[in-house]
Design goal:
Strand 7 and strand 8 form a beta hairpin. It contains one helix and 14 strands. The chain is about 0% helix and about 60% strand. The protein has one domain: Porin. The protein is mainly beta and about 240 residues long. The two termini are about 20 Å apart. A twelve-stranded antiparallel barrel has the order 1-4-5-6-7-8-9-10-11-12-13-14. It has a two-stranded antiparallel ribbon with strand order 2-3.
Protein backbone atom coordinates (compact mmCIF):
# COMPACT_ATOMS: atom_id res chain seq x y z
CA UNK A 1 0.00 0.00 0.00
CA UNK A 2 2.90 2.32 0.51
CA UNK A 3 5.40 1.57 -2.24
CA UNK A 4 3.09 -0.26 -4.59
CA UNK A 5 4.03 2.35 -7.16
CA UNK A 6 7.48 3.87 -7.23
CA UNK A 7 7.29 7.56 -8.11
CA UNK A 8 10.56 9.24 -9.04
CA UNK A 9 11.90 10.72 -5.82
CA UNK A 10 13.32 13.85 -7.39
CA UNK A 11 10.00 14.73 -8.99
CA UNK A 12 8.13 14.23 -5.72
CA UNK A 13 10.51 16.04 -3.37
CA UNK A 14 8.57 18.38 -1.08
CA UNK A 15 9.62 21.12 1.32
CA UNK A 16 6.76 20.39 3.71
CA UNK A 17 4.07 17.84 4.51
CA UNK A 18 1.51 16.76 1.91
CA UNK A 19 -2.01 15.53 2.61
CA UNK A 20 -4.32 13.70 0.26
CA UNK A 21 -7.85 12.34 0.56
CA UNK A 22 -9.39 9.77 -1.76
CA UNK A 23 -12.75 8.05 -2.23
CA UNK A 24 -13.05 4.89 -4.36
CA UNK A 25 -15.89 2.59 -5.29
CA UNK A 26 -13.80 -0.37 -4.03
CA UNK A 27 -10.35 -0.31 -2.44
CA UNK A 28 -8.23 -2.91 -4.26
CA UNK A 29 -4.63 -3.78 -3.46
CA UNK A 30 -2.70 -6.35 -5.51
CA UNK A 31 -5.92 -7.25 -7.27
CA UNK A 32 -7.84 -8.05 -4.06
CA UNK A 33 -10.63 -6.07 -2.43
CA UNK A 34 -9.82 -4.77 1.05
CA UNK A 35 -13.22 -3.08 1.57
CA UNK A 36 -15.50 -6.02 0.81
CA UNK A 37 -16.33 -4.58 -2.60
CA UNK A 38 -17.80 -1.45 -1.01
CA UNK A 39 -17.03 2.27 -1.27
CA UNK A 40 -13.96 3.21 0.78
CA UNK A 41 -12.20 6.39 1.88
CA UNK A 42 -8.48 6.92 2.39
CA UNK A 43 -6.44 9.72 3.96
CA UNK A 44 -2.63 9.99 3.85
CA UNK A 45 -0.12 12.40 5.35
CA UNK A 46 3.48 12.41 4.13
CA UNK A 47 6.14 14.25 6.08
CA UNK A 48 9.65 14.71 4.66
CA UNK A 49 12.25 14.39 7.42
CA UNK A 50 15.26 15.16 5.21
CA UNK A 51 15.72 15.35 1.45
CA UNK A 52 16.14 11.54 1.46
CA UNK A 53 13.98 10.32 4.36
CA UNK A 54 10.17 10.40 4.44
CA UNK A 55 7.59 9.27 6.95
CA UNK A 56 3.90 8.76 6.27
CA UNK A 57 0.65 7.73 7.94
CA UNK A 58 -2.32 6.37 6.01
CA UNK A 59 -5.84 5.57 7.23
CA UNK A 60 -8.34 3.50 5.24
CA UNK A 61 -11.96 2.50 5.84
CA UNK A 62 -12.34 -1.29 5.53
CA UNK A 63 -16.11 -1.67 6.02
CA UNK A 64 -15.84 -4.68 8.36
CA UNK A 65 -13.59 -6.47 5.90
CA UNK A 66 -13.93 -10.27 5.88
CA UNK A 67 -10.37 -10.43 4.56
CA UNK A 68 -9.02 -8.70 7.65
CA UNK A 69 -10.96 -10.24 10.51
CA UNK A 70 -13.90 -7.85 10.33
CA UNK A 71 -11.68 -4.77 10.77
CA UNK A 72 -13.36 -1.40 10.29
CA UNK A 73 -10.18 0.54 9.55
CA UNK A 74 -6.60 -0.03 8.48
CA UNK A 75 -3.55 2.15 9.18
CA UNK A 76 -0.12 2.17 7.53
CA UNK A 77 2.85 3.64 9.36
CA UNK A 78 5.70 3.90 6.87
CA UNK A 79 9.23 5.21 6.57
CA UNK A 80 11.38 5.27 3.44
CA UNK A 81 14.78 6.33 2.17
CA UNK A 82 15.13 7.49 -1.43
CA UNK A 83 17.70 8.78 -3.85
CA UNK A 84 18.43 9.15 -7.55
CA UNK A 85 21.24 8.80 -10.02
CA UNK A 86 20.70 10.25 -13.49
CA UNK A 87 17.35 9.02 -14.79
CA UNK A 88 17.04 6.32 -12.11
CA UNK A 89 15.20 6.91 -8.85
CA UNK A 90 15.16 4.35 -6.06
CA UNK A 91 13.38 3.94 -2.78
CA UNK A 92 13.46 1.49 0.15
CA UNK A 93 11.43 1.38 3.31
CA UNK A 94 9.23 -0.47 5.76
CA UNK A 95 5.50 -0.41 6.50
CA UNK A 96 3.64 -1.45 9.64
CA UNK A 97 0.04 -2.41 8.78
CA UNK A 98 -2.38 -2.03 11.71
CA UNK A 99 -6.05 -3.00 11.78
CA UNK A 100 -8.74 -1.63 14.11
CA UNK A 101 -12.07 -3.16 15.07
CA UNK A 102 -11.25 -6.69 13.92
CA UNK A 103 -10.88 -10.05 15.64
CA UNK A 104 -7.60 -11.83 16.31
CA UNK A 105 -3.98 -11.09 15.46
CA UNK A 106 -4.16 -8.90 12.34
CA UNK A 107 -1.16 -6.52 12.26
CA UNK A 108 1.91 -7.28 10.14
CA UNK A 109 5.11 -5.70 8.81
CA UNK A 110 6.55 -5.46 5.29
CA UNK A 111 9.84 -4.20 3.87
CA UNK A 112 9.82 -2.73 0.39
CA UNK A 113 12.18 -1.51 -2.31
CA UNK A 114 11.87 -0.26 -5.85
CA UNK A 115 13.36 1.77 -8.67
CA UNK A 116 11.95 3.85 -11.48
CA UNK A 117 13.22 5.47 -14.66
CA UNK A 118 11.62 8.41 -16.42
CA UNK A 119 12.02 9.67 -19.96
CA UNK A 120 9.87 12.66 -20.73
CA UNK A 121 6.25 11.87 -19.84
CA UNK A 122 6.91 8.12 -19.51
CA UNK A 123 7.84 6.32 -16.28
CA UNK A 124 8.71 2.64 -15.83
CA UNK A 125 9.16 1.15 -12.38
CA UNK A 126 9.81 -2.14 -10.62
CA UNK A 127 9.24 -2.89 -6.94
CA UNK A 128 9.22 -5.72 -4.44
CA UNK A 129 7.58 -6.13 -1.02
CA UNK A 130 8.43 -8.82 1.50
CA UNK A 131 6.59 -9.68 4.70
CA UNK A 132 8.61 -12.09 6.87
CA UNK A 133 6.75 -15.06 8.31
CA UNK A 134 4.15 -13.81 10.80
CA UNK A 135 1.21 -15.53 12.48
CA UNK A 136 -1.19 -12.80 11.33
CA UNK A 137 -0.64 -13.65 7.64
CA UNK A 138 -0.06 -17.39 8.02
CA UNK A 139 3.54 -17.43 6.79
CA UNK A 140 5.61 -15.08 4.63
CA UNK A 141 4.55 -13.08 1.59
CA UNK A 142 6.53 -11.76 -1.38
CA UNK A 143 5.09 -9.40 -3.99
CA UNK A 144 6.94 -8.37 -7.16
CA UNK A 145 5.58 -5.74 -9.50
CA UNK A 146 6.40 -3.94 -12.74
CA UNK A 147 4.47 -0.87 -13.81
CA UNK A 148 4.45 2.02 -16.25
CA UNK A 149 2.68 5.32 -16.76
CA UNK A 150 2.49 7.82 -19.59
CA UNK A 151 1.37 11.42 -19.44
CA UNK A 152 -0.48 12.37 -22.62
CA UNK A 153 1.27 15.50 -23.96
CA UNK A 154 -0.68 18.78 -23.73
CA UNK A 155 -3.42 17.14 -21.63
CA UNK A 156 -4.00 16.53 -17.89
CA UNK A 157 -4.44 12.80 -18.65
CA UNK A 158 -2.14 10.00 -17.44
CA UNK A 159 -2.57 6.35 -18.44
CA UNK A 160 -0.97 3.58 -16.39
CA UNK A 161 -0.77 -0.13 -15.85
CA UNK A 162 1.01 -2.81 -13.84
CA UNK A 163 1.45 -6.55 -13.47
CA UNK A 164 2.43 -8.29 -10.24
CA UNK A 165 2.76 -11.66 -8.58
CA UNK A 166 2.25 -12.76 -4.97
CA UNK A 167 3.91 -15.84 -3.45
CA UNK A 168 5.30 -17.02 -0.13
CA UNK A 169 5.26 -19.69 2.54
CA UNK A 170 2.26 -21.23 4.32
CA UNK A 171 2.44 -22.03 8.05
CA UNK A 172 -0.77 -24.09 7.88
CA UNK A 173 -2.77 -21.82 10.21
CA UNK A 174 -5.20 -20.72 7.47
CA UNK A 175 -4.31 -17.03 7.83
CA UNK A 176 -2.45 -17.16 4.51
CA UNK A 177 -5.81 -16.58 2.77
CA UNK A 178 -5.69 -12.92 3.82
CA UNK A 179 -3.03 -12.06 1.26
CA UNK A 180 -3.13 -15.16 -0.99
CA UNK A 181 -6.68 -16.59 -1.02
CA UNK A 182 -5.76 -19.34 -3.50
CA UNK A 183 -2.01 -19.64 -3.10
CA UNK A 184 0.44 -17.89 -5.43
CA UNK A 185 -1.31 -15.71 -8.00
CA UNK A 186 -0.80 -12.89 -10.52
CA UNK A 187 -2.66 -9.60 -10.78
CA UNK A 188 -2.77 -6.80 -13.33
CA UNK A 189 -4.45 -3.45 -13.87
CA UNK A 190 -4.81 -0.65 -16.41
CA UNK A 191 -6.33 2.75 -15.90
CA UNK A 192 -6.29 6.49 -16.42
CA UNK A 193 -6.18 9.62 -14.26
CA UNK A 194 -7.40 13.08 -15.14
CA UNK A 195 -5.67 15.78 -13.10
CA UNK A 196 -6.82 19.33 -12.52
CA UNK A 197 -4.94 20.79 -9.55
CA UNK A 198 -5.59 19.85 -6.80
CA UNK A 199 -8.18 17.26 -7.92
CA UNK A 200 -7.72 13.90 -9.63
CA UNK A 201 -10.36 11.52 -10.96
CA UNK A 202 -9.47 7.98 -12.01
CA UNK A 203 -10.85 4.81 -13.54
CA UNK A 204 -9.00 1.51 -13.09
CA UNK A 205 -9.68 -1.99 -14.35
CA UNK A 206 -8.06 -4.81 -12.37
CA UNK A 207 -8.13 -8.61 -12.40
CA UNK A 208 -6.25 -11.70 -11.18
CA UNK A 209 -5.64 -15.23 -12.41
CA UNK A 210 -7.38 -16.73 -9.35
CA UNK A 211 -10.11 -19.25 -10.19
CA UNK A 212 -13.11 -19.98 -7.99
CA UNK A 213 -12.27 -23.68 -7.63
CA UNK A 214 -8.84 -22.74 -6.20
CA UNK A 215 -10.21 -20.70 -3.31
CA UNK A 216 -9.50 -21.97 0.19
CA UNK A 217 -12.22 -19.78 1.73
CA UNK A 218 -15.22 -19.49 -0.65
CA UNK A 219 -16.60 -16.43 1.18
CA UNK A 220 -13.78 -14.45 -0.43
CA UNK A 221 -14.82 -15.29 -3.98
CA UNK A 222 -16.12 -11.77 -4.73
CA UNK A 223 -12.81 -10.20 -3.68
CA UNK A 224 -10.50 -11.30 -6.48
CA UNK A 225 -12.24 -11.05 -9.87
CA UNK A 226 -12.26 -8.39 -12.54
CA UNK A 227 -13.45 -5.01 -11.35
CA UNK A 228 -13.76 -1.47 -12.67
CA UNK A 229 -13.06 1.04 -9.89
CA UNK A 230 -13.72 4.77 -10.01
CA UNK A 231 -11.95 7.19 -7.69
CA UNK A 232 -11.60 10.86 -6.85
CA UNK A 233 -8.92 12.53 -4.76
CA UNK A 234 -7.65 15.90 -3.62
CA UNK A 235 -4.09 16.74 -2.56
CA UNK A 236 -2.70 19.66 -0.58
Amino acid sequence: MALTAIIPAAAEAQSGPTIDFEAVTDYRDRGLSWSDGEIAARARIELPVTTSIDGSVQALTLRGSDRHGGADAGFDLAASYSGYEGLIDWRAGAVYHLFAGGNGDLDYVEVEAGAGASLGPAVVNVSASYAPSQDSIGGSNFYGRIGASLGIPATPLVVYGHAGRSSGTNSGSGNVTRLRPAGSYADWAVGAEYYIMPFTVSLTYSDTDIHRDELRVPVLDHHYGEKLVAGASIRF
